[in-house]
Amino acid sequence: MEETKKLSKINQLTGTIEIPGDKSISHRAVMFGSIANGKTEISNFLMGADCLSTVSCFKKMGVAIDIQEGHVTVEGNGFDGLKEPSDILDVGNSGTTTRLMVGILAGAPFHSCIIGDESIAKRPMSRVTNPLRMMGAKIDGREDGQYTPLSVRGGNLQAIHYHSPVASAQVKSAILLAGLNTKNEETTVTEPHKSRDHTERMLRAFGVDVKEDENSASIIGGQSLQATNIFVPGDISSAAFFLVAGAIVPNSEILLKNVGINPTRTGILDVLEQMGASIEITPKEGHTFEPVADIVIRTSSLKGTTISGDLIPKLIDEIPVIALLASQAEGDTIIRDASELKVKETNRIDTVVGELKKIGATIQATDDGMIISGKTKLTGNAKVSSHGDHRIGMMLAIASCITEEPIELESVDAIDVSYPTFFEHLDSLAK
Ligand SMILES: O=C(O)C1=C[C@@H](OP(=O)(O)O)[C@@H](O)[C@H](O)C1
Ligand SMILES: C=C(OP(=O)(O)O)C(=O)O
């Protein structure tokens, strides 16, 4: 059922929240645990709908996966332990599940069929199906494999040296995972800008040798994964909503605990600093392959900035909430080189601009981004919608904290995709 929620201004946000587990890392922990030998224990797993889709797909391939509120046990039997699914693999709303799983299935000697929701059906899959076909996988799908439903018959693969036209960790990961199923050959992926490197880091934790250069990553085929225990740090993409809330709601101070600060993900912190936000980052010891910090954010006076180039992949999912932040900064904020936004859960250039305009922001779409002029009083008194996109839903919920009049947010349930406890956390901070 699509829910609507009425949301009103909040005078102050104070307190501490523990940010739920990282979505990218949670997906990978289940997938890699499923193709490893032995028992992988995952703690602080994100119980969001997207990660649960990954769990359900791998269960359909015969992997024993047990979930107890945030603690997941995966009993892997190696790559060869995966079984031909007798049912369709339903990825729900999750692009990460679709693309990484196709990379794994490309090397699996059986047939499988992948479907997802209406949004997944619009997202480009040729960015992974093309290179995987070049490696020898038999993949078909709607419009010649451009879109779901996809059908995959995996098998013997050959290595490639692939120059990806887009900076995408999903593309890079799919090819590296397929590369594991070549015979002692080296597969390399090079991208125009470095994308998040969770796959490279986690494969190493599973005992695989992965080489990383500035904008490329390589793997030698034939290596197997050995089970390990994974602690999933808090998701900086989820933290971003409260970082922005703390900066724009008056008299606020929020402590965000255990946030992952992998340098390929920290663009939001760079932007907050560039804009003059009052932020303190305290790195924590004792975390293995993904760095973690506690972060304090306070109400800030902000100035506009320019966001482009290498910075874009480091904050791609945070752009909706950065647009809101920019509406509360003096001057113009220009976001460029971000046309990838058009192929996310929604066209996020259109949905961000359309919804923020409804509540009084001065914002205009460009071909590859947007321009926001501030500082603007947000009016509210409008019906807005997530359009089924979790990040748009949370951005609008944070906007409602500072609108003069209440707003009605439609399709609020989309938020469960990545942050099921979002409103609990917001309520706990509201004074
Ligand atoms: O690899 C991942 O876990 C992700 C990579 C990014 O997508 P692209 O690879 O399409 O840039 C990001 O937007 C998505 O939320 C998660
Ligand atoms: C784009 C996103 O995820 P995915 O590609 O996995 O659907 C996101 O979480 O913002």
CATH architecture of the largest domain: Alpha-beta prism
Please report the number of helical segments.
13
Query: Which topology of the largest domain does CATH recognise?
Result: UDP-n-acetylglucosamine1-carboxyvinyl-transferase, Chain
Looking at CATH, the homologous superfamily of the largest domain is Enolpyruvate transferase domain
Strand portion: 25-35%
CATH class of the largest domain: Alpha Beta
Describe this structure in words.
Helices cover 29% and strands 28% of the residues. With 431 residues, the chain is α/β, with parallel strands linked by helices. It has two domains: 4-20 and 233-429, Alpha-beta prism (UDP-n-acetylglucosamine1-carboxyvinyl-transferase, Chain); 23-231, UDP-n-acetylglucosamine1-carboxyvinyl-transferase, Chain (Alpha-beta prism). Strands 3, 4, 5, 14 and 15 form a five-stranded mixed β-sheet that branches. Strands 19, 20, 21, 22 and 23 form a five-stranded mixed β-sheet that branches. Strands 2-16-18-17 form a four-stranded mixed β-sheet. Strand 10, helix 6 (169-179) and strand 11 (186-190) form a beta-alpha-beta unit. Helix 1 runs parallel beside helix 2 (49-60). The chain is globular. The protein starts with a strand and ends with a helix. 53% of the residues are buried. The model has no long low-confidence stretch (mean pLDDT 97). The structure holds shikimate-3-phosphate and phosphoenolpyruvate. Phosphoenolpyruvate binds next to helix 3.
